[in-house]
Each structure stands twice: as structure tokens, then as C-alpha cells.
Amino acid sequence: MRLVDYLDKGASLARDAPCLTTDGETWTYAEVQELSGRIAAALVERGVRPGEKVAILSANDPLAFTCVFGISRAGAVWCPINPRNEAAENQELLELFECVTLFYQEKFAPLVQQIHGDLPRLATLVCLDGTSPQVPGALSWEDFVAGHVVDVPPVDDVAMIVGTGGTTGRPKGVMLTGTNLETMTAITLMSYPFEGRPVYLALAPLTHAAGVLCFPVLALGGEIVVMRSPDVGRFVELVEHHHVTHTFLPPTLIYMVLAHDALDATDLSSLQCFWYGAAPMSATRLEEALVRIGPVMAQLFGQTEAPMMISTLPPRDHFRPDGSVATERLSSAGRPAPLVTVSIMGEDGALLERGERGEIVVRSSLVMAGYHRNPEATAEASAYGWHHTGDIGYLDEDNYLYIVDRAKDMVITGGFNVYSTEVEQALMAHPDVQDCAVIGLPDEKWGERVTAVLQLRPGARGDTDEITAFVRERIGSVKTPKQVEVWDDLPRSKVGKVLKSDIRASLSSLA
């Protein structure tokens, strides 16, 4: 399926049903479908050929998201560009992807003005919500959109190219095909509850996980409620107001929801599935969420190269048959998804037995087509005939997958391997800790010392000696942090992940 086929499928169920809603304004499936055809026609008129790359630089916005379907209907390839990136990174991504057209919001005009002169392939600039006079040659939306509709078949199966980000070197472009996203959609519909016509609330960026989770909702004729900016209080209100059935947040934002004063007084009974993922979640906070938000929490584990659904933990699997919380599973990432084979591989390429720790590797039609213009990285990621996730983990006897760390985040201290995720889970069980990160820093005695940076809950006293003793009782002295820092907040990526590289650099500079 093309990306636009999800929209068309939803329209086939009820053309007048609500499709996209923002700030009280709703567009029906018929309206979004018709506008996507006009966008496609305008792209074709300006010379965009099937298979060429078209970028969108925008915060969450229904018009920008409709452009995704117009790009697909024109046979082109969608390239989401995150507005929170630095200008140099976005310029590098637009050049790497060979984009010929860029849609952008007016508030990002200074960024576009800064970079577009160095991008000769970028022939067409379209401002979605203004005239953008500061960007020479940019078209206003009214000047761009033509009056007729086209539908162009694609030249191949590549549907979108997504940047991996440049935090570990030069960014790479992940080529995701229609087949990849169809597999992801099929797994989603197989693995999680969907009763009736869904209503999906999108707070997290539509350029990332929150965006691709729209496709299964659209296939069922569901409504997407788009939040233009992140606001946890407004998020809680909208769940009740729109009778939201499905939503997704990374753990950091779920912690903020749990801390919000209005949560316990809000009617959340419409929720069927509250997905969490993109980073490990505290088992203690998850157990709290199962009580205060409801028995609707649903984990997903994936990565850009294998979107969203390598493994799944639906709401029912958070509980035992007698209805009690299955605390032993809350630290897992669920079971491998129905259309995915997961194994654990040693450094020599041999597959390991259950319970043994090694790199998580995957085989599935979920896995990307490769890295755009980077055959070396593609070959490295697919060594031994498996996709390499870069995560360390194991499968237990019941086939539950446990992710113990990113390979690069493992701390070797005194000859022992310490997995930062295990230490973070112990820290997050303490009632004073709001969020945390564990890294290794050079140490003359230990080789590396386990180091923790804490963000405390509002009003918490945060006695670091007491917190250290609390952790030692749970996981032993070897894994207990030898250095504990308390910060007001932790550095985070554009999608809310804690940036351990920034923490490491900051603490190293003080050494």
C-alpha cells in the first residue's frame, strides 16, 4: 500500500466522517482526500517526478500532514524534517535525501532562508501558512495548490526516507517502503485492541512514531486529533473531551502525565490503548500508570530501521490470568511481533540460547530497504543475514524479550558488565526520582565508574546517600552508582529521549 491508500481506505468506509481535527476544526475524509489530490497535481505541474523526494518542515499541523498524502499521491517520497534539528543537520538531511521540494511553516522561514541557498536541487519552496517574503522564490499556499486532482503510481516501493539524526556521527537516511509500513500496520491491528472507530490523539511529533501510528487508525476510518504543541494538561483534557481511544507518548511525557494534578479527576474510560515506547519505561511508574490511567498501557519496541513493531506488549499481557499485575513482565519489551523473527546474536554471528545476552537481531518485511546512498552502512546493519538493532538483550523461556542496554551504553567497571537500564530501573523505583540517566565515566581504579544523574520529583528532598543505599539493596554494590548528580532537568532529544552523550560530555568537561 502507498501512504495515501490508508487515507483512501478510511474514506471508503465513510467519506463524511471526521479525519483530522485540530483546535476545534475538523476536516472530513472527503476534504482531506480532495486536498491531497490537488497537492499532488501541483507537485506534478512543477515537475516533481515519481520517486523524487519531497520534504516537510513543520510542527504538528493537519495541513502539513495532508501534504504527506499529496506527496504519496504524486508518486513521490515523503521526507520528514524535524524542526527541532539544528540548521546544519537539516541542511545535511535535505542534501542527502536529494529533495526537490520543501513544504514549511512560516515560523521556520529563518531556518529555510539560512540553508536553501546551499541546496541547488531544492527547486520549489512552499510556505504552508503565509507569504514568507524573507525567503526568495517561495510560493504561498494559495499560489501553489492547483484546482484539479491527479493520482500517479509510484516507480518503486520506497514511501519515505527518515533521518536517523546526527548524535553518533553523520546522519543516515532510512529508506522505508510501502511494504515496511504495511507490515507495521498489520502488526498493529493484529496485536492491540481496536473496537469501533478509533480516535487517536497525537501529541508527540508526527515526524516520528506518532505519525506512522496514524496509518492503522486511518485504515479503520478513525479520527486523528492533532495537538500543535506539547501540553500535558491539554493532553489530559483532550482525552476526555474527544473520547480518545488510542494515543502514544514516550515515557518521559507519561511521567509528566502521572504528575499532573488533573489526572485523577479526568474521565479516561474511553481509552483502549495507550502506547508507550521510544525509550525504556520505569517498571514502577508503569505499575502506577496501570492503576491511575487504567489497564490500557501497551508497549511497542522498534526503531527507525524496523518501525515500531519488533515486539509488542498489549494491555492484556501486563496482567496475569487472575487479573493481578504481572510485575515480572513490566521490564520486558513484550514478545516478538507476529510477522517478525527475533534472535539474540553473539559477536561471532552465532545465535545464542534462551537466557543468553547478546545483540538483538531481526528478520522481517518490517526491516528497511537500506540506508539511502550508504551501501557500507546497509551492509554493516545486515551482517550475517539479520538486521542488527544495536541493542543488547535476551529472550526468556516464555519468549519475552528483555532489552538490557544499547551496546554503546554498557558500563564495564572492575571487569564486570553493568547494564545502565537495570540501574535506571532501580533508581526509578525510588519515590523521589522523577527521571534519571546512567552512564560510565573513566576511572583509574575501576576502568569506568557507574555514574547517575537524577531529576527529582517536585518537592522531593533527594538525599543521594539514601538513594544510593536504596539502589544497593536492590541490585548490589557493583551496579550501584559510585557518583550521583542531581540536575534540575535532563537534556533530551527532539522526541524526548534523554541524551546520554550530552550528559557524558558535560560531566567529562568538569573532570
UniProtKB/TrEMBL annotation:
Annotated GO MF terms: ligase activity
Keywords of the record: Ligase
Family matches, as SUPFAM superfamilies: Acetyl-CoA synthetase-like (SSF56801)
Domain AMP-dependent synthetase/ligase: 12-372
Stretches assigned to the AMP-binding enzyme C-terminal domain: 422-497
Protein name: Long-chain fatty acid--CoA ligase
The species this protein was found in: Nocardioides mangrovi
